[in-house]
Design brief:
about 40% helix, Rossmann fold, 7 strands, alpha/beta, about 20% strand
């Protein structure tokens, strides 16, 4: 059983501590996808405190396993505590380390992959995700519009690299013939790319 109170507490504490977690309207959309697709295996790139992984567990069947990767060891350990309190630790595997190094070594196939980590690495995450996703699977990426910067002629130095890589990511997913992609203006931009049969 999922401990809803703990899940809600986790959301509140993350927001108070300014830890980026999935936005409600983005989660609503993903919830629809999870209900429709009934995935058996999900990969998340970017665990943070385990909030989104716990939500994915909530909206999938008990036999759905979620693998999630977190680069920050403190965050990952906090996430382990959180998923335990919420009661979903049996279904969530938290891997600690750099996704760029971990992804090439995974030999699992996934029905859904959710990218929500370093924006400058999205093109690399995509390349690896395409090797790990099942046919007809879905690759989701959060924050692809990045505060509106990605679609504007924004060029401030501090964010320039992230914006450039997100633009590259969008170009890849919209021009790849094997993907059917839509980009929604929910949250900070959510891209949904289905791998064609």
């Amino acid at each position: 059983m999922i401990n809803e109170t703990e899940l809600e507490k986790l959301k509140e504490s993350a927001l108070e501590a300014h830890i980026p977690i999935i936005m409600d309207d983005t989660l609503e959309k993903i919830k629809e996808i999870l209900n429709q697709e009934k995935p058996k295996r999900i990969l998340e790139i970017g665990t943070a405190v385990g909030y989104s992984a716990s939500q994915f567990a909530k909206y999938t069947d008990n036999d759905c396993i979620i693998d999630t990767i977190e680069i920050d060891e403190l965050r990952a350990n906090e996430a382990k505590e959180n998923v335990k309190k919420i009661g979903v630790d049996k279904r969530i595997n938290i891997m600690i380390g750099n996704a760029v190094e971990i992804l090439p070594n995974l030999n699992q196939k996934y029905d859904i992959i959710f990218i929500d980590a370093a924006k400058g690495k999205y093109p690399i995450f995509l390349e690896e995700s395409l090797k790990l996703i099942n046919k007809n699977g879905i690759i989701l990426a959060d924050n692809v519009l990045y505060k509106g910067y990605v679609m504007s002629d924004y060029n401030e130095h501090k964010q320039r690299t992230a914006v450039r890589h997100l633009r590259e990511y969008i170009k890849e997913i919209t021009e790849n013939d094997n993907l059917e992609t839509q980009i929604l203006e929910v949250g900070d931009g959510l891209s949904i790319s289905r791998v064609k049969e």
